[in-house]
Design brief:
CATH architecture of the largest domain: 3-Layer(aba) Sandwich
Distance between the termini: 33 Å
Strand order of the largest sheet: 4-5-3-6-7
Number of domains: 3
Number of helices: 16
Helix content: 40-55%
Strand content: 5-15%
CATH class of the largest domain: Alpha Beta
CATH superfamily of the largest domain: P-loop containing nucleotide triphosphate hydrolases
Largest sheet: 5 strands, parallel
Structural class: alpha/beta
Radius of gyration: 21 Å
Shape: globular
Order of helices and strands: EEHHEHEHEHEHHHHEHHHEHHHEH
Length: 359
């Protein structure tokens, strides 16, 4: 599901005729949970019992600034202790095309878990939003300030073969964070990745050509290599590895393991959430669909009702043409042979056979 469109106004903010906006205990000016808040609506937020501001007041010149620039300015003005009180306590680091979007949605159902308003913040990528600063990143979770667990899901974090500095950057900001890594049967993950890239117009080759010519396909499925990159920074106890297949077959049991890992009590997955598949066929959105989702009220309703979500999908989207992902036997054998050593090492790391992968 597409993320909530960002608030972006280049006009001076109402109520800021003098060009300044005093901010006490900052809330996310773009989004709070499923609600959108205009920057001018930011107000003092006090602790639930003490009645005292959680963050110090700052004054920012907001004249003519868009929301993104305002957030960066606010983040830069925050003290380190204020930023630390906002940062996530756990991160879903990947893998791509392994069910992270579904997990992000399921975790939002827990009443003691607060997820970033959208998936894929990509803050710790050098090519992502790293240059906006830790204060900006912390403000993504300002609505979560009183939640027991705060988290985000950015599957690109696992692509350490493309950006080796991701684990080090992450550890420098959130060294105590718990990490969750979803892994999917390697060839099936490659197939899903190929279908997504074709639908997005980023891949024109056949699947056998892409899988053998582009190292990114294989490297994204070398899970133990990606795990090793993070364990150079984080202790093993802070990393939980869950297979996509287990999450799909027994979501409640897998979620209970995740809840324990991030330090919240077990909770029953709602019937509404359980209707969402872990992996889904790709669909193309119509212009009407995108316009409807741009309406905040409709977007909130869409996220709260799986029936409305299903109806919206049937009426305003269409099934994408799924490209063939068949592999010649010799190519399939070559890929599996190349990835076998990595998969065996993953089994040793997990201490069990990956029977859900047909092993």
């Amino acid at each position: 599901m597409s993320p909530l469109p960002s608030e972006a106004s280049d006009r001076a903010l109402p109520g800021c005729e003098h060009g300044t906006l005093p901010v006490t205990t900052i809330v996310d000016v773009g989004r709070v949970g499923r609600r959108r808040i205009h920057p001018a609506a930011m107000a003092s937020v006090t602790g639930p019992s003490t009645g005292t501001p959680m963050l110090r007041s700052v004054e920012i010149n907001t004249s003519g600034r868009p929301t993104r620039t305002l957030l960066i300015a606010i983040g830069a003005a925050m003290a380190d202790s204020e930023i630390q009180s906002l940062l996530p306590t756990f991160v879903v680091i990947g893998a791509t095309n392994a069910g992270t979007s579904t997990l992000h949605g399921w975790l939002k159902e827990h009443d003691r878990v607060c997820m970033s308003p959208r998936e894929g913040l990509d803050f710790f990528l050098e090519s992502g939003t790293w240059d906006r600063g830790t204060g900006w990143y912390g403000l993504r979770f300002a609505a979560c300030i009183w939640d027991q667990a705060r988290g985000e899901a950015s599957p690109n974090y696992a692509n350490t073969h493309l950006d080796p500095g991701i684990p080090e950057r992450m550890y420098s900001v959130i060294p105590e964070a718990r990490l969750i890594y979803l892994v999917r049967e390697p060839i099936e993950r490659m197939r899903s990745m190929y279908r997504q890239l074709v639908i997005d117009g980023a891949e024109t080759r056949s699947f056998p050509e892409a899988a053998t010519e582009d190292p990114h396909y294989r490297e994204s499925s070398r899970y133990i290599s990606r795990i090793g990159a993070f364990l150079k920074q984080y202790p093993k106890k802070q990393l939980l590895v869950i297979t996509t297949e287990r999450l799909a077959a027994d979501p409640q049991a897998a979620l209970n393991d995740i809840y324990g890992h991030i330090g919240v009590p077990a909770a029953e997955l709602s019937t509404q959430a359980a209707h969402r598949g872990v992996t889904a066929d790709q669909r193309l959105e119509s212009t009407v669909s995108r316009r409807l989702k741009a309406n905040p009220t409709y977007w909130r309703a869409l996220n709260r009702s799986w029936r409305l979500s299903n109806l919206h999908q049937r009426v305003f989207t269409r099934q994408a043409r799924i490209p063939s992902t068949q592999l010649p036997k010799e190519v399939d054998a070559e890929l599996r042979g190349d990835l076998e050593k990595d998969t065996q090492a993953l089994e040793v790391f997990l201490g069990r056979r990956l029977t859900e992968w047909g092993r």
